[in-house]
Every structure is written in structure tokens, then in C-alpha cells.
Amino acid sequence: MSFKTPKFITFDCYGTLTNFEMGPAARKQYANLVPADKMDGFVESFRGFRLDEVLGAWKPYSEVVHNSIERTCKVWNVKFDAADARAIYESVPTWGPHPDVPAGLAKIAHEIPLVILSNADNSQIQSNVDKLGAPFHKVFTAEMANSYKPRRQGFEYMLDQLGCGPEDIMHCSSSFRYDLMTAYDMGIKNKAWINRGHEPACPFYEYREIKDAGGLAGLVGL
């Protein structure tokens, strides 16, 4: 079943298009500080603190990472060094796309304008976007919106900048907590969940599920 062709297809970037390697970066940085049998728990705590850090007022993403890993170290009784946090943050621009993304985007990029709304700093995002292999009409960051997802302000900013309403877009993400729950609350009817395996299905939020970016063309009838 396909959606009505939207004016824009909007995307989360990290995790959905770009392979989100924050966990692997933390594992690498803390390999000599965290015992192997505790590493999964350490990384899971880091994930949870990152979400908590973006729910308040905007701050640079370097601070989000710094605060999250510092709080994680406190919980796990691991020595914190700001240089470790900085190394994890500075790895972000090196991350590339999921293997299915360039070909999947190529099927739609010249038919419908593509847009990114990302929890990123302005200084990070372009390096990751350049690796996606497709032209993007607009790229919006949390820094531009002065707010991180899952707060609504970023979505509101994006729609204002595009000059359209919730009915005019299809929003695509691999995350319910950061994107699709908020999109649902905002009345965005056309939603695609790219199932990357890092969150369970949540049918209440009324989306179409696809296994990878190759399924996007079928959703919009291309």
C-alpha cells in the first residue's frame, strides 16, 4: 500500500540513513577501562543518558555526549576523562551510510525533494550527508532549531522552513522514541519505519514498515 505522493520526504539521519556508531565508539574508547562482561550495560546506560540529555534546553551536541558519558562513568564507577568524551564526539563525522541507503535514495531523490532533520551540530552533519550519495533539498539540525528530537520544536521548525504542513510530508525513521512518536503526536499521517532492529515494532503509531531504504520508492508509488 502506497502513500499519496508527498511534497517532501523527511528523514532522521543517524541510525536511519547513517550507521549510528555511538555504541561502538564508546566500546572502543573504554575497552581498557570497562570489563568485557560489563560493557553491554555500560553502553546501554550511555544510550539512556543521551536521550535524557536532549529532553531539555538545547546545548551543543559535544556537551550532550560529554554529559552522557560522564554520567555513565559515574554509574559504573569508571574514571571519566573529558578527552574520551571528545574522541567519541569527534568520531561522528566519519560515520558512513547503511549499505542499502545510496541505492534506496537514488530511486526517489530526483522525483521528490529529500530533507533531513537531525540531532546534530551544524559542524558535524555535512560530512555524513555527503556520504549518503544523494542530493538533499534541505538539511536541518538541532542547532538550527535550537531543540533536539523528540521534542516537537525541531519538527515545527522544519515545517515552517519548508512552508508546508504535516499532511505534506512523509517522515522516515528507524526510531519511535526520537521521531515517530512525535510525528504521530503532530498529525503526520505518512510515516515510514525503517526497521534497523534497534527498537521493537509499535503499531499504535500508524506507520508503514520497510526493512531498508530500498522500500521507500514503493511507499510513494515510484
From TrEMBL:
Keyword match Hydrolase: yes
InterPro entries registered for this protein in UniProt: 2-HAD (IPR006328), HAD-like_sf (IPR036412), HAD-SF_hydro_IA (IPR006439), HAD_sf (IPR023214), S-2-haloacid_dehalogenase (IPR051540)
Top-rank lineage group of the source organism: Bacteria
Gene3D superfamilies, A to Z: 1.10.150.750, HAD superfamily/HAD-like
GO terms of molecular function: hydrolase activity, acting on acid halide bonds, in C-halide compounds
Keywords: Hydrolase
Matching PANTHER family: ACID DEHALOGENASE, PUTATIVE (AFU_ORTHOLOGUE AFUA_6G14460)-RELATED, HYDROLASE, HALOACID DELAHOGENASE-RELATED
Protein name: Haloacid dehalogenase type II
